[in-house]
What does this fold into?
Amino acid sequence: MYYVASGVVKILRTDNYGKELIIELCKAGDFFGHMDVLKGLEYGSAAEVLEDAEVHLVPRKVFLDLMHRNRDVAMRFIRLLAGEVTQNQERLLALAYASVRERTAQALLDLQARFEESKSRPQLSREDLAGMVGTAKESLIRALSDFKSDGWISLEGKSVIIQDEQALKRFAGR
It folds into this structure.
């Protein structure tokens, strides 16, 4: 598994048609690959650095030995996994039932919350943002354009700045 010491790393899967679905954006202090380690598998996703990053490999044996020896570490990882399962369930529900505009609003709010304490937010391409939302780039651009017209966001290059968080939250059903 891997530990992100600094920077931002995009975790993604690609379907048979080459379309990327971004599973997660990892920031300093995050782990990735732990699910595969716990399942006894090789790492099955792709990882791409979005901004300068320092990433450390934690060997499988070291991690599993630590989990067996230290109950506190094991409990922290169980809580981490439970949180990830809950997030994935919510994301599946959104993909199944929410509109592209609702999913876009949710993704923007999630990004803001995830990187709230960071000094900077990752500069995501429209393709990356579409990969997070689970839609085509053109559909994402239409949603962003609608949000901009409504005065909920502003666009500065690759950056999306939330102007009316409460309106986005209401729209996203939060």
